[in-house]
Amino acid sequence: MTAQSTGPATAAGTTKRAFLELDDLKVSFQTEDGVVRAVDGVSFALERGRTMAIVGESGSGKSVTSQAIMGLHSRRAAKITGHAWVDGVDIVTAPDAELRALRGQRMAMIFQDPLSSLHPFYTVGKQLVEAVQAHGEVPKAEARRRAVSMLDRVGIPNAARRVDDYPHSFSGGMRQRAMIAMALINNPALLIADEPTTALDVTVQAQILELIRELQAEYNMAIVLITHDLGVVAESADDVTVMYGGRVVERGGVDEIFSRPSMPYTWGLMSSVPDMEADRGKRLEPIPGQPPSLINLPKGCVFRPRCAYAQHVPDGRCDTERPDLTPVDDGHDARCFLTLDQKRTLAVKATGTEEVA
Amino acid sequence: MLGFVVKRLGAMVVMLVGLSITVFLLFSVLPADPARLTCGKSCTPDVVQANRVRLGLDKPLTEQYTTYVKGIFAGRTYNEGQGVAEIDCPAPCLGYSFSQQKPVTELITEAVPVTMWLALGSFVLWMAIGVTGGVIASLNRGRWLDVALQSTALVLYSLPTFFVGLIMLIVVIVQFGLLPYPDYYPPTQDFPKFFDTMLLPWLTIATASAAFYVRLTRTQMVETLGEDYIRTARAKGLTERAVTVKHALRAGLTPIVTAAGLDLGLLLGGAIIVEQIFNLPGVGRLAVGSVIDSDLPVITGVTLVAATFIIIANFVVDLLYMVIDPRVRLS
Description:
Chain A is α/β, with parallel strands linked by helices and 357 residues long. Chain A has helices spanning 62-69, 96-102, 114-117, 124-133, 140-153, 159-162, 172-184, 202-219, 230-236, 254-259, 264-271, 317-320, 340-351, and strands at 20-31, 34-46, 51-55, 78-86, 89-90, 107-110, 190-194, 222-227, 239-244, 247-253, 326-329, 332-334.
């Protein structure tokens, strides 16, 4: 199932590009303290109908990556290199007018906090109508009709009446549904969901994920799902990209990643997730230390300062050399010097997962 | 929503009553004796005493206040049944100026339109320049245009009105004769003359105010441009213009409208310095003249009217909140 998710090296250039394809995407910001390399060489490919989860801590570069795909970074503030092709258009070099036409039309985005992401002074309906009218001369009545039917589609009860309500009179889950309706109202082919359930109640989270999955099937959308919640990943993703310090540290199909995680950072993420079946006495194990400063990355492996397994790698290579993204299996790569055997045995110890393969 | 309006209206009436009592008391305890001011050099103690009785100034303060308030609503007649020429002061009677031989209301109604034109003209100017400048500065944050706009605003804001006004007067009119000496005509009577006279006063007031609004608007815009809903607006594919005006500026409007409303209300009560410099017969100059002449009824009247403008401006600003921010309508 991971065959399509292999690195873009195979797809780029000669053959047909994937619907969404990132190739060595780099985003850096000039600040007073120095250059922040927020995203440092991310590549992946994603076809319509499939979901790519980008996982990582705060500051890992996952949100910056997603906003680069939407072309939301100010070209003045951010230096962007590499490529991000959406349906054949390179977002990195496309002129502003072309980007604007793509945004909200071919690609759309929903955000973590639906309350702060909706304008407080406009009704939900007006904001949806605006999204329709931004992409073509649609009469107001027609745009409004589409807004009501879209709100109805995402499960807002009494949509014809609620369309004239302001966001503050919606509940959290309803607001996120309204955000989804606004994102999908122009029938986009790519949806970027940046932590779409993080700000919601647990009971509502599942409903929203279910709604996104249904709509994905209906519209045949490619979805980039940004999250730090591995539960969400397991439920919704086809492929997983784990990011750390602005780089991809592991990537592969969702089953591969969960059954054979091959990088100490991924192990750390997994053992920080509460396990319903585990002993109650067993404590959660957070990853020790802090994410690295993106201005002064550590020498050698970026994860080295927090890695408990570096002593298994001979000659202190982890301290001096940056590991490359190397294949663990077909369509499964990790950025780690541990040998395949070590990865296998240590992963079992670290995460408690039984190896399936 | 209707409840809110009624409540605010009620509060406004209470404030006006409180205000009138305060103003009335304040001027009653002043050392100046209003009876003494009714006659000039020819005053003798007998005449002063007679005038005091005629004007009811010998009565207790509460009675004087009720007479005053009654005069506002029903009008009053001075010297009634005193065997002297009666002076009629129709409602709303704010008192009678013996030094100018006119009812205070008449003096104020003559002055208000002048001040109103002055206030409205400069208001339009400073809001247009200030808000546009602030938006431009915020969109160029940290670049030279922003720095230039902000430092210009700071310098202009620091200059006192009498300085700017005098400099304009001296340079434009006296030195280069680009405009005639100020001579006020109502716009309905002679618009070109009106315009020539008002241009410099407008610019003088607008200079300092626009500078303030550049800074205020910039601060608001910088804040709202960083909000999540601005990112949403861009993600929808809106033009930068729509993002800036319909989303960012709209969201940052509340403090700007508050300040603008109060500034306008304050200005309608008279621009003392500018009216003085440019010889405009407005409320400000009326106030200055009456203070110099110790014309107590006029001072009281002007103070009341000016304060009323501010109270009304406050009320209007409160109403505008509801128009601007739907969240206010709920509470």
